[in-house]
């Protein structure tokens, strides 16, 4: 009798395990369906939408950032209280503590030196300091475009935490390059998420890029190896590689990226290649802290700043340039396929500051 009950218990336990597995698989399937529906919906929207000028796309961050500063400054007496209040507003606007201190210190010096008398003049001077710093930080680099060479394979490794828009950015970059006549292959290196693999496949179909993938849960290194080998053997111009963003600590992240870099170097024969970090513009200082970790352990060549049109603060773009000392190569200003735009300093400054 006891043995019979034991078998019954074992059977129930197995049924429970099967039930949990079914739930997990259903969640994965639902995630894939939702991703596909999102992509199809965006395709319809894009056919109807025209590419808006950058000035229009930056209306929310511009109003949120400079509007708040203007509201706080104008009509006020220039004294210590004003500078303290300014510090608070800058920090709240995602400028960050370090850069805020630098800005306010520089502003106080200039106000004293130029003998500025009104808060309107102080506001204009602050805008000028921000503009100068931003232009300076983004012209330190010889080339803010993708460093792609004709007649050879070019690697673009894309890194960043989950949810920042990595796979979407990869799809949009692939689309740009294919429209420029490049032969593009994408490696679905985020094997931890079934939805990420499926999303990369959808972008492949949509753009005409070839996709290398393996099953959910497989070793990302195998995908990287196959992607670079295939790209080299079949004379692709560009291989774009997705990576997992869910590694829980710095050491795991470092080990995984070191392994990926080693495979790319061995298979491509290249020591240097594009490594782009994707940062979500709406995550503020959290995004900057994540970026600092990646900047410490990877030789980043540039930044993709996504969802910048969706932030009402807008200040995050300044410390990214100031603290990372890496060029912003692309900026996301909408959901359309053409709304991940090559970053143009002159165009951005005119749209944001004028």
TrEMBL record:
The keyword Phosphoprotein does not apply. Residues 1-25 are annotated as: Disordered. Pfam families: SRP54, SRP54_N. It is found in: Cell membrane; Cytoplasm. GO terms for biological process: SRP-dependent cotranslational protein targeting to membrane. InterPro entries: AAA+_ATPase, P-loop_NTPase, Signal_recog_particl_SRP54_hlx, SR_rcpt_FtsY, SRP/SRP_N, SRP54_GTPase_dom, SRP54_N_sf. Its EC number is 3.6.5.4. Residues 327-340 form the SRP54-type proteins GTP-binding domain. It catalyses: GTP + H2O = GDP + phosphate + H(+). One of its GO terms (molecular function) is GTP binding. Gene3D superfamilies: P-loop containing nucleotide triphosphate hydrolases, Signal recognition particle SRP54, nucleotide-binding domain. Residues 10-25 have a biased composition (Basic and acidic residues). It is a peripheral membrane protein. GTP binds at residues 160-167, 242-246, 306-309. The keyword DNA-binding does not apply. Part of the signal recognition particle protein translocation system, which is composed of SRP and FtsY. Involved in targeting and insertion of nascent membrane proteins into the cytoplasmic membrane. Acts as a receptor for the complex formed by the signal recognition particle (SRP) and the ribosome-nascent chain (RNC). This is Signal recognition particle receptor FtsY.
